[in-house]
Amino acid sequence: QVQLVESGGGLVQAGGSLRLSCAASGRTFSSYGMGWFRRAPGKEREFVAAISWSGGITYYADSVKGRFTISRDNAKNTVYLEINSMRPEDTAVYYCAARNSGTYYLLSSYDYWGQGTQVTVSS
To answer: Could you give the CA distance from residue 90 to residue 81 in angstroms, rounded to a whole number?
Structure first.
């Protein structure tokens, strides 16, 4: 069992930056691939970024490449999402999730989810 708690969301002006954190409980955190997803108002939850269990491999949605960086610290049981050059269209609830296997960009591949953290970007 893995419990995930996101933090770091807030209100930011366009062009600004944020770093989201996702703290995980459980001793097996380092064996899970981790992902970040987001759900914008009126839209479906979508894949943002993912990272392998070791941190050696990362994946990004095309819409965030070059602006978002996912990383993890297995010693701290934490995964991060750094967001730069923020845009109003980045406004969403951001969720972290953990998966044992499966395709990294599919919601159905993830076994555990956090409650989400709200990110709002003002123009």
So the answer is: 13
CA distance 18 to 73: 18
At residue 11, the 3 state secondary structure works out as strand
Rg (Cα) of the chain, in Å, rounded? 13
Question: From the CB of residue 94, how many other CB atoms can be counted at a distance below 10 Å?
Answer: 23
Number of CB atoms found within 10 A of residue 11's CB:
12
What is the rounded CA–CA span in Å between residue 122 and residue 47? 22
Q: Are 59 and 49 in contact (CB under 8 A)?
A: yes
Which amino acid is located at 30 in the chain?
S
Kindly report, residue by residue over 23-80, the tens digit of the pLDDT: 999 778 889 999 999 999 999 999 999 999 999 999 999 999 999 999 999 999 999 9
**Residues contacting 112, CB < 8 A, separation 6+:** 1, 2, 3, 4, 32, 97, 98
Tokens 């807030």 -> residue: 10
**Nearest Cα to Cα of residue 60 among 95, 52, 96, 68:** 68
